[in-house]
Design a protein that fits this description.
Blueprint (H helix, E strand, L loop, with lengths): L15 H14 L12 H8 L3 H13 L3 E4 L3 E4 L4 E3 L6 H7 L5 E12 L1 H6 L7 E11 L2 E10 L16 H7 L6 E9 L3 H6 L8 E9 L5 E10 L3 E3 L7
Parallel strand pairs: 3-10
Antiparallel strand pairs: 1-2, 4-5, 5-6, 6-9, 7-8, 8-9
Helix pairs in contact: 1-3, 2-3
């Protein structure tokens, strides 16, 4: 078991549990702790750092909620497997990958500024025959395809090019244009892939797909983008924290 050096600054205004959580997160994201590694137990960590058990427990719970640690009965706490974990917050897949220390590669599979799609137009609050910007991207890491993402945007983004979308996240591009998605409605599901999806994502016959449709909105309530995305089942996971009101 790796013992990760941790420095706690008791004079800092940053809460102790947060200091601990951030340093432990860094140790996972930079590879000092690897997928499947056993994690130092709560009591040992508290004694080593001279912290209270509730403080350590809260820090560990934070990493569990981020999808970085997994607790299993009879096994203990281990570092989560190396899949992309989508947290319950508004981020792009590109941002999630970069945060994990990965280097995503994007291939623009199709691009059009003249696409008519009534479903996407309705999601964007536009007339069914509106000519939309349509972009379909295949995102990979280390040669392994992770997601096939199809997004639609309003005609105001018709000056975008396929090259714009190869080296940055869609949301980052929107932010440079003064459009910031702040809230989204997502529907998560699973199904069998179509032949084209199976080929692009390099899936075997019978492998399932994780799916997500998303409608994102700016702070003024205007719809920003509509997405219909498919993910390899073995490269992606959704992590959702549910609170009791």
């Amino acid at each position: 078991m790796n013992v990760i050096p941790v420095t706690i600054d008791r004079g800092s205004p940053v809460p102790l549990y947060h200091q601990l959580a951030e340093q432990l997160t860094a140790s996972i994201e930079d590879g000092r702790l690897k997928p499947g590694d056993p994690f130092e137990n709560e009591l040992a960590l508290a004694e080593r750092l001279d912290l209270s058990r509730p403080t350590v427990r809260r820090a560990i719970a934070e990493l569990v909620s981020r999808g970085l640690l997994v607790r299993r009965r009879g096994v203990g706490t281990t570092v989560a497997s190396q899949v992309i974990h989508r947290r319950d917050e508004l981020t792009s897949l590109y941002d999630d990958m970069v945060r994990r220390g990965q280097k995503p590669v994007t291939e623009v599979v199709s691009f059009s500024t003249d696409d008519v799609n009534p479903v996407a137009a309705e999601a964007l609050g536009l007339a069914p025959d509106t000519h939309l910007v349509s972009v379909e991207r295949l995102r990979s890491v280390d040669g392994t395809p992770t997601a096939l993402m199809h997004n639609w945007l309003s005609p105001q983004f018709a000056d975008l090019t396929a090259a714009d979308l190869e080296d940055a996240s869609l949301y980052a591009i929107l932010r440079t244009r003064g459009v910031r998605p702040v809230i989204a409605h997502q529907t998560i599901g699973a199904r069998r892939p179509a032949a084209r999806e199976r080929k692009l994502l390099k899936l075997a016959a019978g492998d399932p797909l994780l799916t997500m449709t998303r409608k994102a909105y700016a702070a003024n309530g205007v719809a920003v983008e509509y997405g219909d995305h498919s993910y390899r089942y073995d490269q992606y996971a959704f992590d959702v924290t549910v609170y009791d009101r």
